Known about the structure:
The chain is α+β, with helices and mostly antiparallel strands and 99 residues long. It folds into two domains: 49 residues; 46 residues. Helices cover 34% and strands 34% of the residues. The protein is built from two helices and five strands. The longest helix has 20 residues.
Amino acid sequence: MGELRHLPAPGRAFFIDDGGRVLRASWHLDLGLVNLSVWQGDRCTDSFPLPAHDAARLIVYLADGLAAASSTEAAPAVSDGGPSIGARLRRLVTRAAAR
C-alpha cells in the first residue's frame, strides 16, 4: 500500500492503494501550484490544484501527524535533547513558505 512510482515526465509521482486507485502529484511551477489527482485505471476521477503556499501547510500537517504517530509507538527513538524531527521539519517548511 502507498507504493511510490515515478512517471516518465519530470515533477510527477504517484501512489497506488490496495484498490488500484492512484494519487498523482505534479508540480506546475509556472502556475505556482501542485496538482493532486485521483485516478482509477486510465480515468481521472478527481483533481485539486493546491497552491504552493498551501502545499507547505499540508507538509506541516503531515509531519505533525507522523510525529504524533511515532510518539505513540512502544519504543521511543533515542534523542540527543535537540528539537524533534517534526519540529525541525516544521521550521524548515515555515521558512520555505515565507519566501
